[in-house]
Structure formats: structure tokens, C-alpha cells
Write a structure and sequence with these properties.
Blueprint lengths: L1 H4 E8 L4 E3 L3 E10 L3 E3 L1 E16 L4 E18 L6 E3 L2 E10 L8 E2 L3 E12 L6 E10 L7 H4 L2 E11 L2 E12 L3 E2 L4 E10 L8 E12 L2 E13 L7 E11 L13 E12 L5 E10 L25 H4 L8 E3 L6 E3 L13
Length: 352
Amino acid sequence: MLFDKVKKFSIVFSSPPEFGSGDVVSGKVVLELSGHSRVQAIKLHAEGIAKTRFLIAADACYYREDVEYLDLKEELLHADNGELTTLSAGIHEFPFSFQLPERLGTSFEGKHGSIRYWVKVKLHRPWATVKKTRKEFTVIQPIDINTPALLAPHGCTKDKKARVWVQNFGQVSIRAKIDRTGYTPGEVIPVFAEFDNSTPRPVVPTVYITQVQTYINEGNLKKKQVVVTTLQGDMVGAHRRQMWHGCAIKIPSVVPSILHCRTIKVEYMLRVCVDVPGTSKLCVELPLVMGTNRLHPSGNCTSTSVMNNQYSGNQKWLDHAIPEQPVCHKCQIRDSVTCKNTTTKFIVNKLL
């Protein structure tokens, strides 16, 4: 039987299986036989699908949707005039090549959905079951952070009163700013912030980088937030003020932002928070865009990249899931406390 004669049936890409929109995907199908065999056809099918699956408990409905990004078919070997092709024992290679569309969703794996791409090949032979092989590949939708919108600084101010029952005990305010919105994984974000604590209790500031996954189906949304890394500052004493002059938080290896997919969005934010006594947490949220093209040397921003993490290289963000417990770093401040009505300079050490 032919099934017993097939020693190897696999897909080999010509380059690492990581491609951008519009790139040409090429490779070969390798078929190794232990003896002469007759073959009807070898068919290739390249597919890309964005899937969402989630439950909305409020209306007891389960939503699912598939969006097709890629659907290409090609026959690598077919019978002429209905005659079968006889292949000799040994290794046979069948090259293939196809071009990806210009706008594709970046490969992604989430709790309620995914964006996946693969090549599937079927071997058809008489009087035998169809033999199949499949291999996935990664697609990146480029995001260039070197645009005016993503290079512009962004800041926000918020305050909240501390209460015990109906009595006020002062308030806590946060002023936070980052030098730009667009970053790439591996870079360090310097966070500039001022914390004014006029309450009788100390507070501890913390900064988070959060990934926000949004799954969309027929107008229904399902969101999931994942903290990818945190940085904790020193305590701000009662009736005191503290300032951060570029407290550094490093971006781990994460998937780029996905902003133009119909069913899945992946966005990021930097959150600077303190727990206010007697009430809920006070947070300032600054949007982030995770790009694929690093900051040009001519950029006028103060932060620099600390890793050469080009997306054409090792796709660590696909190989490693985001940890349930993010790594928490301590922001080291040598002289961070100032009196309420005076200002004192201080130094912030960068993370090692």
C-alpha cells in the first residue's frame, strides 16, 4: 500500500516562517517514498482565519465568528488526462510560492480568540486515505512608531478624595506624563509623575503596563485585561509630595498592537496608580501603541531602546504566554520625599 511507502511528508519554508503583509511565502513540500508509488494529486491550501469565541452571561448567549484573511489553493502535482503519476522511491520535492495580501491581522493567541495562518497540503492516491500535513506561519502587520501622532508626548492629571463614611480626610492627586505614545518591545519607558498626598496616611505608587484584548461579535464586546509588567515606587508619606523624573519601566516581549482587525483588537496602556485610603484606587491611564519599527536615531525623544528586538527576528511573544503573575520591579529613589510646600531634587535609578 502507498500508505506504507510514505516515509516522510512535510512542509519546509524557504526562510523562517515569519512574514509581513504583502510578502511572498515560498517553500517546498518534501515527499519521501520507500518504493514506487502512484499519486493522483498533491494539493496545497494556504489559510488565515481570525476566530472569536465568548459567552455573555447577561443574555446567556455564546457568540462565535470566523473572519477569513487568506484562502489560496494550488495544485503542486496533478494527473494529466486523468492518468496517475508514478513516483520512484526516494525524495521528491515540490516547490510552492504565493503572495500575502497587503492588509492582514497580526498573528495572535488569546483567551477568547485567535488569528492564525497555516499551509496545509494533501496527498491524494488511489485506494488509500488522503494523507495530510500542516505547518503554521506568523504574520506581522507593520506599525511604524515614527509618526507625529505616536511621537507626541501624552499626559494626564487626576485626583480623588479620601473618605471615612461622609468625612473627608484630604485628597491624593497624580500628574503623569510619558514622552511619546509609540514604543517597541524591549524599550524602556521613562515615566514622569508627581504624587501629592494630603491625607494623614501614606500611599504607595505603582505603574503597570496592561494589555487590553477586545473580542467583537455582532456588536457584542468581551474584554480581557492582562498586566504584563509592574513597577513599584517608594512610599509617599502623609502630607508629602513625591516626584518621578523618568522612573524607568521596561517593556517585555509582547505582541504588537492589533488595531484594524474586525473581530479582535489588542491595545496597551500605561497605568500609574495609588490606593487612596477609604475609597477605590486612583489611576491615571496613558495609551500606548506597540509598534514593529523602532525609533529612528533622529527621533527627538529621551528614551532609548535597550534590546535589538526586531519583529523579523525571534518571535518570543508567540512562543511565551503572558505570565499570570507579572514581574514586579522596585523603583529605586534615593531622595524621593519632599515637604508639602517645598521642592527637593532627587535621582531615579534605571532598572538594571
